[in-house]
Structures are given as structure tokens and as C-alpha cells.
Amino acid sequence: MIERKGKKRQIAGILAGLMVLTLTACGRDDGPKNLIQEENGEERIINFFSPMEKTDPDAENVARSASDLTIAMAEEKLGVTVTYKTYTAEDYQDKTYDEVTLERARNNMDDVYLLNPDVILALGEEGKLLDLSGLESAKNLREIIRTANTVDGKLVAIPQEVVAYGLFVNKDMFDQYGLALPETPEEFLHCCEVFQENGIKTPVGANRWWLETFVFAQAFADLYNGGNTEAEIAALNSGEARYSDYMRPGFEFLKELMDKGYIDAEKALVSEAIDGEGEDFLSGKTPIVMAYWGAANAETAYGKTDFEMQVIGFPSDRGQMPVMPMTGFGIGAEAEHAEDALQMMDIILSDEALQVYSETNRVISPSKNVSVECVPALKPLNDRIEEGVYVLGSNAGMKVEQWGNTCLIVRELLGGATVDECMAEFDKLQDEVLE
């Protein structure tokens, strides 16, 4: 049985390079041990709950993050003080960030929340989040944002960046063996075969968090790019179509990668993101890894390599496919300072603020009016996104939460479960929702 509460998601893989979010296993404690609260005597305050490890947002001589810069704009224009309340789970005895966020939002403890995809869906369905579609800044959003964060017709969350996942490849190694960068699953398997024949034992460096990206690329390539998205999602939500039918090709593909030794399943099952495979990729021992957009910018990840690196989409029948999950800021439906919070959101999500944010972090903006030149390595991935070719790794309009559940079921595959057993888990999830 898969324990779906035991999630650990890292914000490094969702809000690249901005906020360190560690979501660990469900704990035995009754309350969060690592909650940091900062209160002040200001009359107009906005309580902001997030995983940012910050105790003094006004500390002098400390560089603010890109998000802090936009919040500072709101504080100045509105004459308010944003009070940070943060939580980071430290070990497997603690509650996850998601669990603590759900508790706080359900009890109206804060005004603004940074939310992961599964929490956006849960709180949206419970009516615990305000509809943000009336914000002036919402008029400028890319359609992908509306699609991913709309629950029951309400836009309940908006991010400050669009995070894209792709394959990070050592282009020099592909050139060395005369290989074109793969477009389809068959081409990807061929590349792995050639690498292995030339002494590269494990061509794909993997970890226990991000292998679901391969699955999404194959599962939803047609759904999001075939011109029939709404009807297909409606069929899934009604039970007319089965998630397992969509997911099966991706799981069979991963199983083949494992069986042929192209992925070390045993190592991947216990490896943290980047920590597990990063060293081999940077040293030229492994030609392929998967990571998020911001990892190409950060020198602590893959922002500085001794070889030509390119970031491409995952293999699918429609070619290289970016995978894009969503987080977002949401406001509690019964927030004490709801009006101030709404005004704050309108400022930090304005084109002016998002330009500052995007230029600071060099990321894709949720606003269709804001663009930033990406590093050369990201151009292949960015080109596909600008063409409107991608799949969503999370979509609040789908009744079955995608990102977290798929991650956990992939982990079962790594641990020895069969593809049929994994598909049975998707069927069970869907049946539970339909009931």
C-alpha cells in the first residue's frame, strides 16, 4: 500500500532557487516543531505563511530574494507590513509542509499562503481560498496559469514564476558518439543503448523525486497538445476515461529503462534531487539527468559546467516535451486581512514586479507581457514553451492530484512493484474521487 501522506517535495524543484522547501514524511507529533512566527505592533499587517527560512524580513545588510523585492514594493505602496510565518520540516518525524499548510488554512490562521499543487486542489475544493480572477494583474496571466490553478471555476492561486522541467544533457558526449538529441521514447532508448555499449554503465542519472516527468511527457502529450484538452479532462473527472490508460506507456518506458540498466533503480530510490546524480553528471560520467529550469542558472546545481550543456524536453510521440508543475500564492477565504492581502497580490503580481522578479531569478514569468532572456543552455526548452508545446505536471482542474501521487507511485515502481500494480493504484485513486 502506498502511503500518500509521506511526501517530501523540494521547492528547489518547484520554485527554482528561491525558497528551500523540504516536505518530509508524516510525523507522530501533534504540532509543527519548526514554526517560526514574527509579530509586530503594526496595525496593518499581512500574515504570509511559506517555507522561506526567514525570521527578520527587515534585517539590514541582508540581500533580499527576488520574492522579497516584490513584497517590499507592496509594503511601500500600501503602507503595510508583511509578517513572515515559516515552517520547514527537518526530518521524518516532522509533519510535512503540506500538512501544516492545510491545518493553518483550514483554521484561518494566516492571510497569504505559498501552496503546492495538491494543497491548491484540496483547499480550492473545500472553498478555503479566495477567487483571484478579479485582480487587475490576473488579466495579464498566461493561459497555462489559469488552466493549472482553477478549481470549480475559480482562480485560487497564482505563482510568481512558471517552473519547467527538462532533460539536462551533456551535448559533448552526444556529439562524441554521433547521437542526435532524442525526440521520441524510441530515440531516447537508442541513445542509452549506444552510451552503454561504449562503457557508460548508467546513462541516466535519477533521483526519487523527478522521474515522474518522463511519465507526464508521454501520458499527457496528446491531452494538452491535441486540441481536445477540456473534453479529455472532463472524461477523466467523470470516470469515462481512466488515468491508468494515460499513465501506462510512461510507466512501461521507465520499467524498460530500469530493466536494461539505463537507470539505477536501487540508487534512485534513495537519492535526493541533484545530490544523488549531480556529481556524475558534472564530471562527465553520466550524460543525462533531469532537473528544473532554475538549476541551469544556479552554480550550486548545473549553472557552471565544463562541457556544453543543453536542456531539452522529455521524449514523447510529439517530440521533446517540457513538463510544467504549478505552485502559487493563495489567500484564505476568511483571511483576517483579506483586502490588504488582495492589494498586496495585485502589486507583487503586476508586470512591474514580475519583471523585477524574473530578471533577478532569470525565470519564465506567469505574465504574458514579461519575458527575460534565458541562458543559452535553456533555449531548446524555452523554444518549445514559447511555441505552446508542453504538458502540465499539475492541474487543479483534474480531480485526481497528479504531481505528488505520480511521484509516489513511480517510487513504488523503483522499489519493485509491477506496472500493473502501479496502474491499480491510479485506478484506486480515481475510484476514491468518484465515490
Question: What are the defining features of this structure?
Answer:
alpha/beta, 435 residues, five-stranded mixed beta sheet, four-stranded mixed beta sheet, 13 strands
Architecture overview:
It is built from 17 helices and 13 strands. By secondary structure, it is α/β, with parallel strands linked by helices. Helix 7 crosses helix 10 and helix 10 (243-259) runs antiparallel to helix 17 (419-434). The model is unreliable at 1-33 and 53-64 (pLDDT under 50). The two termini are 19 Å apart.
Structural class, from helix and strand content?
Answer: alpha/beta
Roughly what fraction of the amino acids lie in strands?
Answer: 5-15%
Stretches with pLDDT under 50, minimum 5 residues: 1-33, 53-64
The outline comes out as globular
Q: Span from first to last CA?
A: 19 Å
Strand order of the largest sheet: 1-3-2-4-12
- Give the overall average pLDDT: 86
Q: Give the helix proportion (percent range).
A: 25-40%
- Main sheet: strands, sense, barrel: 5 strands, mixed
Number of strands: 13
Tally of contiguous helical segments? 17
- N-to-C series of helices and strands: EEHEHEHHEEEHHEHHHHHHEEEEHHHEHH
Radius of gyration: 21 Å
A few lines on this structure:
This protein has helices at 66-78, 97-106, 117-125, 143-148, 171-176, 185-197, 212-219, 221-225, 229-238, 243-259, 265-270, 278-282, 338-348, 351-361, 379-386, 403-414, 419-434; strands at residues 36-37, 45-50, 81-86, 112-115, 150-151, 154-155, 165-170, 204-205, 288-292, 309-312, 323-324, 328-331, 391-392.
